[in-house]
Amino acid sequence: MSVSAERELTLQDALRQKPAEPPAKAGDGPRILTIHIMGSRYEVPEGLTIMKAMEHAGYVFIRGCGCRSGFCGACATVYRTPGDYRLKVGLACQTVAEDGMMLTQIPFYPANKAAYDVERSRPTLGTLLTNYPELSRCLGCNTCTKVCPQDLQVMEYMAAAMRGDLTRVAEMSFDCLMCGLCASRCPAETVQYHVAILARRLYGRHIAPAAAHLADRMAEIEQHKFDAELDRLTGLSREEIKKLYDARDIEAEDEQEDE
Amino acid sequence: MPYSPEMQEAVGAVERSRTRRLKEVHPRLSPEEKQELLVKFHPDYRPDAQRELKVGSNRGDRMPVELVDVLEAKSRIDPDRFDLEAIDREVDILIVGGGGGGSAAALVAHAAGAKVLQVTKLRLGDANTMMAQGGIQAATKASDSPAIHYLDVVGGGGYVNHPELVKALVNDAPGIIRWLEQLGAMLNKTPDGTMESIHGGGTSRKRMHFARDYTGAEIMRTLRDEVRNQGVEVIEFCPVVELLLDEQGACAGAILYNFDTEQYLIVRAKTVILATGGFGRLHVSGFETTNHYGATGDGLIMAYRAGGKLVFLDATQFHPTGVAFPEQIVGQLVTEKVRGLGAQLVNSDGEQFVFPLETRDAVSAAIIRECRERIKGLTTITGRPGVWLDSPMIELIGGRGTVEKQLPAMFRQYSRFDINMAKEPILIYPTLHYQNGGVEIDERGETAVTNLFAAGEVSGGVHGRNRLMGNSLLDILVFGRRAAQAAVERAATVAPGRLSLDHVRRYNEEIEASGVAEHRNSPILLPMYGSREVASS
């Protein structure tokens, strides 16, 4: 579709204003919406997510579709709605299709990814800058925050990264899906989500205290402390093991963790 | 899509009984009650849900009809059209699958110095691993032990789990948590470093470790990052469409299909590890599913054609709490952690009807009974049944803000549709979640086919007939690592043989001879929603 035709469609959509038809009554089929997928016009029933609307239109996804539950970041989508100049974003599997929507997916973005040794790296600003020197180019424009489909404060965690506050980056970026929308819109060409996972792994490895009970348990396993008991259990008959299971004691729900 | 006035009225009954229910503990099912409930209401027991398989070594076994359909199918490739002398790639270990199991295997095999190729149908990390919210079990606390974990696993699994696999699972578990800690995965900890852990359905100790409600996502993105750091060679968007054997019938490689270029690639490998996941996207019994888009059971089918033995595939896991409303996200997972944090299941009268942390099969059956037999469920505007999961209880128990802090993914998912689950209960119904059985493996991950290993959901035996929450993230890492170790050792002794697709020819002939429908081809690779009614999520 040519650019001018695309614009014309947008204009038509904008002029159409809000739906004139009354809400669907019981027994009527769903209202039909018009959406534009990469410039092509399709009619789809109201109430579908963008992903299901695209499938309704006949798309069989290879790219741009993953977990279908808002966890994997495969279906980052950029769209506009009639009468609004702004670019909007969402995950196709979690965003409801709207009448007149014009959309495209960003299934892949060629982002810079550093290879590093998490074991030997120190949890410092220096490590972040060595791996991602472009970090310091951040302009503070906040575009990354505006496009995050998880509503994370991306620019703020980037600011924390530049202060070397890795704990804060780890906490603030934790819900990141690595969909790549932030990097796709960054005028400084930083890759926020790769900075974030580096910070999280450094935090997890070097800042968060190691679990003492886990180290103790590992020592016991290395000393084969549980082998004999496990061997005994694997040799029991179904009836014997059932008896043990039915008689097992269950840790109380309200028992507090030793903190 | 906030609640309609009718649904809001129904919420009232839940709110009115909440204070009383806070102190109320619903009795647990006795073993006899549980069995009766399962037989009467679990979807596995529906007479039309399963049929006998007519081809291959498991001939006569009953399995879900949707699975039998893809097993009783010819290969999607014509074996006569491939020149198997024209080998495109030669490696020590071919790892099929880009989820947690495949990635764990890739890291271990790569670290051992093997030449590894990891191939995946979609992206690296596109897998059910990414979606697992609730947690990962491991007996890391002094009050717990691998033996207690063992009992929970076999009791939950119906006492038919393969003991050596369970022993491996529970004894390796603390080491897996330690590995994740060393990789820098952010499992929840208290300020002194103690790992937080809670109960899950069927656990007798609070051994569910978690990373908020992004546990699988945190594990997957950490492993994926490390696979990339280590420079493991990964080929994405290239599903394996058939395994290759040598003259002795040992696995010796696979045929890949490049989705983009539509070209085939012949890979010769000394050992192959299947980590292709499960079959949720086959929509067994017409249920919605929590599963990843790529969960079409490809590995099961290819391993079966190659001579793998299938176990426990008549037992399908339905997760008790899938979204029943809003319609846009129907079938998606509401993590068991919601119940772990104190939310009760409540019917239309505002009453509890099952102890919330019974095993998943029992809770699912109880919800179906409440809707079908007792008619105490609700019906959404699109006609879907459901019962309430009283999530606001979590705030009363854990304090204000607990839902958003402990369940950010869930909270966000509902907020997108204008439902505040910290204040309003949510409507749920069972959804197809997990393939309990699969290709039989031994404790090193090897299948009945020499040099073919399997790990994770594609494999079967460790969970018996019913997997407990938090044992799948554990399973993929334990057996991904074990399969890799065994495959590396084996690869050192394997002399590459002549590649063959004779097993596929024989299977195709058997299909023809058996009189089952011949028009089907498998693996299907993608669920093809674009070409049919978009009813499922």
Describe the structure.
- The complex is a heterodimer of chains A (259) and B (537).
- Helices cover 38% and strands 10% of the residues of chain A.
- Chain A has 259 residues and is α+β, with helices and mostly antiparallel strands.
- Chain A has 3 domains: 3-105, Ubiquitin-like (UB roll), CATH 3.10.20.30; 125-207, no CATH class; 212-246, no CATH class.
- A 5-stranded mixed beta sheet of chain A has the order 2-1-5-3-4, with helices on one face.
- Chain B has 2 domains: 5-41 and 317-432, Flavocytochrome C3, Chain A, domain 1 (Alpha-Beta Complex); 75-315 and 436-502, FAD/NAD(P)-binding domain.
- Chain B is globular.
- In chain B, a hairpin with a 6-residue loop joins strand 11 and strand 12.
- Chains A and B meet through helix 2, helix 8, helix 9, helix 10 and helix 11 of A and helix 5, helix 6, helix 7, helix 8 and helix 14 of B.
Unreliable residue runs of chain A: 1-26, 255-259
Number of strands of chain B: 22
How far the N terminus sits from the C terminus of chain B, by CA atoms, comes to: 17 Å
CATH homologous superfamily annotation of the largest domain in chain B: FAD/NAD(P)-binding domain
Secondary structure: helix percent of chain A: 25-40%
Q: Report the average pLDDT across residues of chain B.
A: 95
Provide the structure class of chain A.
alpha+beta
* Main pleated-sheet profile of chain B: 7 strands, mixed
The helix tally of chain A amounts to 11
CATH architecture of the largest domain in chain A: Roll
Strand neighbour order, sheet with most strands of chain A:
2-1-5-3-4
Class from secondary-structure proportions of chain B: alpha/beta
CATH topology group of the largest domain in chain A: Ubiquitin-like (UB roll)
Overall radius of gyration of chain B: 23 Å
The share of residues in extended strands of chain A comes to 5-15%
Using only C-alpha atoms, the radius of gyration of chain A works out to: 26 Å
Mean pLDDT over all positions of chain A: 89
How does the overall form of chain A come out from the CA principal axes? flat
Helix count, DSSP H or I runs of 4 or more residues of chain B: 16
Spans of at least 5 consecutive residues with low confidence of chain B? 532-537
The number of domains of chain B: 2
